[in-house]
Amino acid sequence: MAYDPAIGQLVLFGGYDDSVNPLSDTWAFDGTTWTEHVSRGGVADIAPVVPADWYPDPTGRFHWRYWTGSEWTEHVSRDEQLFLDPLDETPESGPA
């Protein structure tokens, strides 16, 4: 565990599962909440994992758009009705 002044958080790497197998998890603690960070190629992303769910549509065309946890989908909603709205361009980031 170490303090990362760049993000102002404690960072924890590793650990063990219930069978005492080593893990490669990376977690950050902001003083209140532990957040798991996704590892790609052995380096943890700075952005926390955002769970799959419905979030405000980043394109602004609908009220909600479905986020898979790693990318936006064509599944959208407005006034409790579901639609398909293929993305012409992928939004630059996931839900905030």
Label this structure with key terms.
single chain, 96 residues, mainly beta, 2 domains, 9 strands, elongated
End-to-end CA span: 26 Å
- Can you summarize the main beta sheet? 5 strands, antiparallel
Shape: elongated
Estimate the mean pLDDT confidence: 82
Total domains = 2
- SS strand fraction: over 45%
What would you say this structure looks like, in words?
The protein folds into 2 domains: 2-38, no CATH class; 50-96, no CATH class. The chain is 0% helix and 46% strand. It has strands spanning 2-4, 9-13, 26-29, 34-40, 43-48, 53-56, 64-67, 72-78, 81-84. It has a 5-stranded antiparallel beta sheet with strand order 1-2-3-4-5, with no helix packed on it. A 4-stranded antiparallel beta sheet has the order 6-7-8-9, with no helix packed on it. It starts with a strand and ends in a 12-residue tail after the last strand. The mean pLDDT is 82.
Concise account of the structure shown:
With 96 residues, this protein is mostly beta strands.
SSE blueprint:
Blueprint lengths: L1 E3 L4 E5 L12 E4 L4 E7 L2 E6 L4 E4 L7 E4 L4 E7 L2 E4 L12
Antiparallel strand pairs: 1-2, 2-3, 3-4, 4-5, 6-7, 7-8, 8-9
